Each structure stands twice: as C-alpha cells, then as structure tokens.
Amino acid sequence: MAGFGLPNFGQLTEAFKKAQQIQQDAQKLQEELDAMELEGTSSDGRASIWLSGNQQPLKVRLAPELVSEGATVTEAAVLEALKAAYDTSTSTMKARMEELTGGLNLNLPGA
Q1: Do 34 and 56 form a contact (C-beta atoms < 8 A)?
Q2: Alpha carbon distance 15, 6 (integer Å)
Q3: Which of 35, 74, 88, 92 is the most exposed place for a label (fewest CB within 10 A)?
Q4: How far apart are CA 76 and CA 82, in angstroms?
Q5: Residue 48's pLDDT band (boundaries 50, 70, 90)?
Q6: CA gap 103, 13 in Å, rounded
Q7: What per-residue confidence (pLDDT) applies to 17?
Q8: pLDDT higher at 56 or 11
Q9: With 90 as the cut, is the pLDDT of residue 110 above it?
Q10: Structural domain boundaries of the chain?
C-alpha cells in the first residue's frame, strides 16, 4: 500500500529507529561535553581559563606576576585566554556533533 506517495512501513520503522538512536547518542554526547575540561591560555601563558565542552566556565588560573602588572594587562590576558578556550570548546562541540549526525547540515550556530 505504498502506492499513494507514502513510504512503506519498513522504511518508516527504520526512520523511527534511527531517530531514537540519534536522540540517545545526543544525550550521551551532551554528558560527554559537560564532563570535558578544555583549556584556553593567553599567548604569554600567564592566564588560563577552562570551559566545558558546552562552554560552561569551570576555572581560571592567573600567574601572580600577571596580576601585579595591573588591571589592563591582566584583563587583556584573561580575555585572550577566554577567547582561546571558547574557540577550542566551540570547535570540539562542532566536531562531535558532526560525528553524531554523520555530517548532516543542521544549521547549528557557528557551523
């Protein structure tokens, strides 16, 4: 009875199974991303920031000599480390999502 433009029941069942598997894999991926600690470091190595794979802030490390140089230098190093951590986290998330979806274009932000 697939004559009216409807997929056969076997194809529909297979599509639902695939959707369920993707949903389970996405939940597992979410947990893996939450557990990751991805580090971004300033170019001089005196500021480091760690984010999860989902861009949640985890911790910050500042070298004492950096802080003693004043607010402007410290702020610049922290911002540089934050951008590096964000870039690493974003690229990691994107790569893992591409693995999960088999490269399907889901119009994800930053994709």
Answers
A1: yes
A2: 13
A3: 35
A4: 10
A5: very high
A6: 23
A7: 84
A8: 56
A9: no
A10: 29-95
Lookup result for tokens 């001089």: 44
Nearest 5 degrees, angle CA 14-CA 18-CA 20? 115
CA distances from 18 to 1, 12, 58, 64, 71 (A): 23, 10, 34, 52, 53
Distance of CA 74 to the CA centre of its chain: 26
Contact 54, 89 (CB under 8 A): yes
What CATH number has the domain spanning 29-95?
3.30.1310.10
Q: 57-62 and 47-51: which strand pairing?
A: antiparallel
Distance in angstroms between the alpha carbons of the first and the last residue of the chain: 40
Work out the pLDDT band at 37, boundaries 50, 70, 90: very high
Residue with tokens 């794979």: 53
pTM, whole model, 2 decimals?
Answer: 0.71
